[in-house]
From TrEMBL:
The gene is cobG. Residues 28-83 form the Nitrite/Sulfite reductase ferredoxin-like domain. It comes from the Bacteria. GO terms for molecular function: precorrin-3B synthase activity. This is Precorrin-3B synthase. Its EC number is 1.14.13.83. It holds the Pfam family NIR_SIR_ferr. Keywords: 4Fe-4S, Heme, Iron, Iron-sulfur, Metal-binding, Oxidoreductase. NCBIfam families: CobG. It is an enzyme of class 1 (oxidoreductase).
Amino acid sequence: MVASLPARSGPDACPGAVQVHPALDGGLARVRVPGGALTADQWRAVAEASAALGAGELELTSRGNLQVRGLAAGAEASLAERLSVAGLLPSVTHDRVRNIVASPLSGRDGRGVLDVRPLVAALDAALRADPVLAGLPGRFLFALDDGRGDVAGLGADVGLRGRTLLLAGRDSGLRVAPDEAVPALLAAAHAFLAERDGHWRLSELDDGVNRVAARLGATPPGLPAARPVSWGPIGAVSQVDGRIAVAAAVPLGRLSPAQVEVLCGAPAVVVTPWRGVVVPDLPDGSFLARLAEAGLATDPDSPWVGVTACVGSPGCARAYADVRADALDHHSGHPSHGLPVHWVGCERACGSPAGEHLRMVATVDGYVTA
């Protein structure tokens, strides 16, 4: 089971690439990566920015984004310039609202009913072109699921599964063709803004699904919300074009500088919402061994699959424990494959995964489970 989080209202303080969070270990910047997809040049740009301006590590988020930690005061200006040159900060006004998750292997492994990669690019461009949608909360999330059901259950506010428009993970009653998908998603986002009453998420709005659906002229059929999958792809995957994709989980969602550098040798990187990476379009599967040698989890039976953590102390002033060290000590000898496990330093439970999971919560008196 997992403890529920309280409804929230008022302005949110989600960090971005420009609006940096002042953490105890320095500035924290979040780099939005729509669909999790980065070219080789973009990955190298983030890696070099983190090494030059921050701690050199990269954190992966539950939305397929990247975080740079340890920024010195004022370094956000240099970071923004580097990201802008790399095409990773195409809009300052819409920086924090470009939250788009997508099926990581869409269009490559032959599964799903449509390739959502063009929709990711189209949605991002249309979102940035709409000045009103700059007012979305930084927690608002879009999901583009190609029909396989991998990201439909991640709790996105507005999403697509195949041709079904989803609201807070639930069937809205609307079916859209691929060329209608982006306008429908944006219309739903506008409807949320009209109804939000200060709330950050559609799921936190009282009767929010029905209220937003009514504005779209739809009647939800009352089906249960899509169920989240526990973890993403692991291992080698054959692509329909004859090439290979390799996938790995990142232990506790943090890449060391050495691991970041290994991925600089990839032709492209897709960051998954399960704090993993996919390296697509390879001639063979040999790159998987390089990921394993770097300490990434390339075996589905690895004890690190499904284990995540917030930063804990000493990076966060609110944390009661060094949760990463404690998680490393615990899971090194205890494979976790029932529920996903998320370790957190306080009751705020930052970075919690979608769906059912075991939460290890640090308190002044030790850990409690939730």
